[in-house]
Queue: 2 jobs
Job 1
Amino acid sequence: MDSNKRPENMERITTAELAEAFIEEQVKAIREQVKDGKVLLALSGGVDSSVVAALLIKAIGRNLVSVHVNHGFLRKGEPEQVIEVFRNQLNANLIYVDAADRFLDKVAGVSDPEQKRHIIGEEFIKVFDEEAAKLEGIHFLAQGTIYPDILESEKGIKAHHNVGGLPEEMNMELVEPVKLLFKDEVRVVGKALGLPDNMVYRQPFPGPGLAVRCPGAITRDRLEAVRESDAILREEFAKNGLAGKVWQYFTVVPDFKSTGIKNGKRTFDWPCIIRAINTTDVMEVTVEHLSEELIDTLVTRITTEVEGINRVLIDYTPKPPATVEYE
Ligand code: XMP
């Protein structure tokens, strides 16, 4: 049987009972697979890797070594929050690696989307390999791969960093307990595992992070514009009761400039694109229509507070024909 194929008779996990049964089954499977071995986990702090971390902590406790890599493409305040929740509150065996400069140097000048994803994915694996080498005796690598990642990678739509790409010489066996689940099921499992709501209902975030929202060759200044505008968008969504209600929302700063006027002077700056969408299974998405008042606030705040932005655009395209992310 192809272990990357969801069995046709597999029931959709929609209730606490079904989640409990899944957890029990996975805890058993993880223990059988890893025995007394140590497992290294790429803990991004997103829903998928957080649920995998909680499952593994339940199954093997301190033998799970979680590594949080700050690749420089995380959202504002995110590395700090991961440390707070996992190290301070959940007492996880957590290693924090600040690799921002290393990743930014690697993708400098690279404009092809698939190449960017591959470089970031490869660098991730290198960082984990280095951490594993320092730790000694780690033979397993856990990943937060979910079913849409597998389906879309198979169709060649996108090369997700967390599917395949593991160099054979790395000599690590994969542990992917949620790889047959859809996103909504991962959340039900997370809730049943007792993870806090702000983690379980957190919007999804791609592995390569803000790198895919800074289309083309990434520069530090444009990346900062993405990070700052994203922080403003999240703040305004929270204020307006939309956080946790809208499935995913973010900003994109494309690599082209247009003319504008700021403080009576001509500017030549980037536009900032806002994308807010809803879905249940990520295969198809619909757009969230924003109120005129919220749009006005976002336009004012983003153009005045974010360096390098002189225009705000809204992307009202569903999936298909567009994908969620721009790259
Ligand atoms: P697309 O752009 O494929 O996005 O329509 C579907 C969902 O997947 C997220 N996404 C990723 N998640 N690693 C991930 O774990 C990735 O490389 C990746 N790329 C996209 C995206 O944010 C959306 O929720």
Job 2
Amino acid sequence: MKTEPENEYRDRRSLTNILGMAKRLLGVSIKENGVYADFTMGNGNDTLYIKKMCPSGTIYAFDIQPAALEATKKLLEAEGCMDENVHLICDSHANFKKHIPETAELDGAIFNLGYLPGGDKSTTTKTSSTLTCLSGALDMLGPGGVAVVCVYPGHEEGAREGAAILELAEGLDRGGFDCLYHRLVNIPEAPFIVAFQKKIGKTPKFRKIGKISL
Ligand code: SAM
């Protein structure tokens, strides 16, 4: 039974399935022995997805709520995915540089902003720490690395985060990053995605295939 509008966004067969789309975009970064960050661990669904996508990878997952670490550990153990390469860290993502070696290059990162559905709505991500973390994570992306951000503009802080993230994305040098904006244009309050990919090398030249320029 769909009692909450957000359930609509979870339907796998729906264009409104923002979390499914976020995972697909993160899948672009799949790499053997890759290094990944889940900057908003919550119940661990994204951490689990990353571990299944890249079993040999290293994952740093962050949350400020101890309950999130417990839930994630339990989930990963139940799925046989908990090992020494999964680091569950109880700290703000704004402090991630204390926990990820500074020489590391991230292959992928995910932010599922806001508050835990069914949890305390006041424990929500905040624009200032989100931006500190996101800009640091973009610096740490390796060539071809992807950072995917799910934004929930239906609540006040989410709307602020969304505006700030879009401003950051629009201002990034096109020679360094590709920035993608994915949203339901007829539902302004619906969750949306901003994704960033660090360019692999030189900006590719436009080329013509048949009648289409690529
Ligand atoms: N990815 C999660 C999952 O798969 O279940 C859902 C994440 S939930 C929408 C957002 C989470 O961000 C909450 O668990 C909240 O505690 C966490 N959070 C809020 N502020 C944070 C911060 N500064 N650093 C890290 N996590 C934070």
